[in-house]
């Protein structure tokens, strides 16, 4: 994690430093926005690096043939519980560690960034341990209410 690391997530910094790190990350999101696809900007606006803290991973799946990775997290909306399906396109299947999410109790922080080779990176800090970096070329988001038969 470049900005919102484990010490930040676990409240080990004083209030000034905690706020400073978050403000620097928000500035980073603003700086990269012109160079990112619509759904990357949307995810950045939804999470702001800290809004997924405490959220559980409902499912994840990798389709090696299409180079697509799906991460589904539980979220709350004004209409009640829902699932946010983050679909990462153009991933290198060898770089995805699906098993990291098996040991994950919940998400702590996440960061979006530009990666080499016309790719983007979504870094996710996991609790109690671990960090995942997903490199992708594009993404899509799908929000569906909890309790639907197809979930």
Number of strands: 7
Provide the residue-averaged pLDDT: 95
Give a short account of the largest sheet: 4 strands, antiparallel
β-sheet strand percentage: 35-45%
Could you walk me through the main structural features you see in this protein, from its secondary elements to its overall organization?
This protein has 151 residues and is an alpha+beta fold. It has one domain (6-145). It has 3 helices and 7 strands. The protein has a 4-stranded antiparallel sheet with strand order 1-2-3-7, with helices on one face. β2 (68-77) and β3 form a beta hairpin.
Provide keyphrases for this structure:
single chain, 151 residues, alpha+beta, 4-stranded antiparallel sheet, 3-stranded antiparallel sheet, 3 helices, 21% helix
Offer a quick outline of the entry.
The protein has 151 residues and is of the alpha+beta class. The chain has three helices and seven strands, in the order αααβββββββ.
Question: Which helices and strands, and how do they pair?
Answer:
Blueprint: H1 6-9, H2 15-32, H3 38-47, E1 57-63, E2 68-77, E3 80-89, E4 106-115, E5 119-127, E6 131-136, E7 138-145
Antiparallel strand pairs: 1-2, 2-3, 3-7, 4-5, 5-6
């Amino acid at each position: 994690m470049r900005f919102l690391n484990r010490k930040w997530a676990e409240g080990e910094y004083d209030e000034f430093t905690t706020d400073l790190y978050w403000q620097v990350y928000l500035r980073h999101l603003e700086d990269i926005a012109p160079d990112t696809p619509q759904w990357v900007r949307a995810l950045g606006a939804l999470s702001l690096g800290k809004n997924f803290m405490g959220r559980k991973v409902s499912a994840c799946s990798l389709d090696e043939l299409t180079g697509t990775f799906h991460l589904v997290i539980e979220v709350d909306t004004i209409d009640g519980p829902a699932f946010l399906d983050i679909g990462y396109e153009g991933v290198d299947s060898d770089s995805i560690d699906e098993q990291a999410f098996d040991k994950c109790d919940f998400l702590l922080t996440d960061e979006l960034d530009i990666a080499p080779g016309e790719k983007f990176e979504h870094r996710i800090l996991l609790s109690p341990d671990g960090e995942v970096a997903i490199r992708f070329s594009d993404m899509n988001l799908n929000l569906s209410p909890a309790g639907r038969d197809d979930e």
